[in-house]
User: Fold this.
Amino acid sequence: MELPTLHVIPIDSVLLHEAIIPDKVQSLASIIESDGVQKNPIIVFPTKDGEQYIAIDGIHRAEAMRELGCVSVVASLVDYTDASIELFGWSQVFFSVEREELLDIIKKVCGRKPEQRDFWDAAHALTTRQAYFGCAFRKGEGAFLFPCKDFSVEQWAVFDRAFMAEIRDREIAHRPVSNDYCLDVFERDEDIACLCRRPVISKEEVVRMALARTPLPSDTTRHIIPNRPLGLNTPLGLLKAHVPMDVANSIIEAEVQNRWTKGAIRHYPDSVYIYDE
Assistant:
């Protein structure tokens, strides 16, 4: 069994691929401070020059630790080009909202009129970058598509941020649902008024946006990461101290070896449900 590659890295070398949600950072900071440990490593991959790391999982955890005064963070280093790391997207579902209000919000932020389409035609258009947004409503009216001629992920990100800001300002209840099963959730949950599909984002775009320091909107990507390490429980005292990286890493290596020797490292290939705060 090959163990994850764990390293202590400077927290200032971590680039975020998505925007953070401030309330979530504050909540996590309180939990981490109370626990006194970084429970789980964040997931990162190094940039080509090896000077920085792009975080694809644990961005709120990393920002919470930064706020707590940590100068380093424990990370699991992965090869982002590996096909076993899969990239999916998140759709948004909305509750208690009228069709015209939602369509007007999208029209306002992206300056395009919706076209009414068959649901699967609209889904294909989003997958093939022919549109910025697609919406399906409970009343069986098909889907409404906001088409574009030359898709730009940078422009879409501007639209999406403005769209979700309007949603929050109007206090419209919503939550993200993974693209790969969003239709099942939409059909099963009758309280959902609308399903809004987003375009598919590529790994190359994740890297480009992170390097440009213009992170994607929050809840854009969903990464499937095999062999995710959990429960390392690294003391915050170590991560707040200005300890040389080689010393900090030798401490982590010794702890991993100790747990391996004691048989305290277990591998579970199961899928899980996490009941988050």
Remarks:
- The longest strand covers residues 86-95.
- The domain at 5-84+225-262 is CATH 3.90.1530.10 (Conserved hypothetical protein from pyrococcus furiosus pfu- 392566-001, ParB domain).
- The chain has nine helices and 14 strands.
